[in-house]
């Protein structure tokens, strides 16, 4: 089975459509959405309805910090622009869409895999896996062999070893073997708001039969997505980031 992994869609319709198309061409038969479906972007209702349809067909979706903020209340630790986007997003959604967001689990275990937005050690406190040390902390907090998470917005692949976790910098389009002798943590990168200097949308494919993970970069009309953010009256910085991928 080929599993599609998408994180941090952030209400970006153009990026989500592009990634779903690319993942369909890769032959993915199951989808996993690793949180932050909303926030920043101009199409929260469309993205939510699209993810809901996939979940109804058996996909997995987990709660992200922006999802929680929209469904419940924004964290005081969020920057002002993010809180503005949260308030705007809430006004675009109906009761059923908000209820769907609020019902998402913090994490899902499936076979030897853990799906979570932020980390395994404290999923609801939203700490980042942004280093070998934090990757080790997350790997040590779960018995699952594979952890797939988002939140960091940059593709990364870590593996457990004595001391800080080992780290690979993934190359898009090149399958990476994930041998069973090791435990792994993978971040596919952000579909809807990449922050690694490449504006192309990010996603990944895990092949359970071949035990390989392939990171993908998918070009999309990021200029259109940015223009829609500006037209909606959302903070311009979220449009600027789409244009630069940073």
Automatic annotation (TrEMBL):
UniProt-listed InterPro entries: Ap4A_hydrolase (IPR050126), Calcineurin-like_PHP_lpxH (IPR024654), Metallo-depent_PP-like (IPR029052), Pesterase_MJ0912 (IPR011152)
Entries under SUPFAM superfamilies matching the protein: Metallo-dependent phosphatases
Superkingdom of source: Bacteria
Calcineurin-like phosphoesterase domain ranges (all copies): 1-209
Gene3D superfamilies: 3.60.21.10
Family note: Belongs to the metallophosphoesterase superfamily. YfcE family.
Protein name from the UniProt record: Metallophosphoesterase family protein
